[in-house]
Each structure stands twice: as C-alpha cells, then as structure tokens.
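Workshop exercise sheet. Pairs work together: one partner reads the sequence aloud, the other fills in the structure field after running the prediction. Swap roles for the next sheet.
Pair: D.N. / O.F.
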Amino acid sequence: MKGFEFVFLAAGSVFGAFLRYKITESPLLFNTLPLNVLIVNVIGAFILGAFVILSEQWNLDGRYSLLAAVGFCGSLTTMSSFALDSSNLLDNQHYGALAVNIIANIGLSIGALIAGKSIMSAIISS
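Structure field:
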C-alpha cells in the first residue's frame, strides 16, 4: 500500500513542480516587485482551500491529500523562492517593495485559501 502512496505523492509533485517552473520561468516584475512567486503561491493556496472542502465533503482517501495537497500544492507553491525574492529586495534596499512582497504573499495566499474554501463550499451547497 505504501507504493501507491508514493505514486500519488510523486504524480502530484511532478505536476506541481512543472507548473511552477512554467509560471516562473520568465520573470514577471511590477517595478521591482517579483510577481511570479506571488502568483504560484496565491493559486496554490486557492486550490488547497478548495481541495480541503472537497476532501471533507466527499470523505476522500488520504492518498488524494498526498496527490493534491502535499504533492501538487506543495510543489506548486514556494516559500524558499518567496524568501529569496524578499532577501534580494532587502539587499537592493527596495524596502517598500519588500514590505509589499511580504504582505502580498502572506495576505493574498491566506485570502485565496479562504476564497477557495468559501467558493467550494458554496458550489457543494448548491
């Protein structure tokens, strides 16, 4: 049974990492603020929020959490790149952009997770 868990985790991880790579391969900047990492973090948080509701509502097997939450969302989102972007902004003394980067990544990711949960709850309740 552990083999299937690995397959679920690996499949989600590969797809999430590939999608993150495609979204972040060409830098997207707004002035000095890097947007690519923000985009993947917000999208991943939204998907995770929606998945949490689906998982609870449909009583999904834990392997699907390995696929979607741990594998896909874990590989799509990126704390280390967020930390690197923030460090680079700090090193280059872009303090305003640093503050916006931190607030946007954390705030919008939490907001996206809540939105994903809320929207999925509304869809399921319909």
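Discussion prompt: The radius of gyration is 16 Å. What would you look at next?
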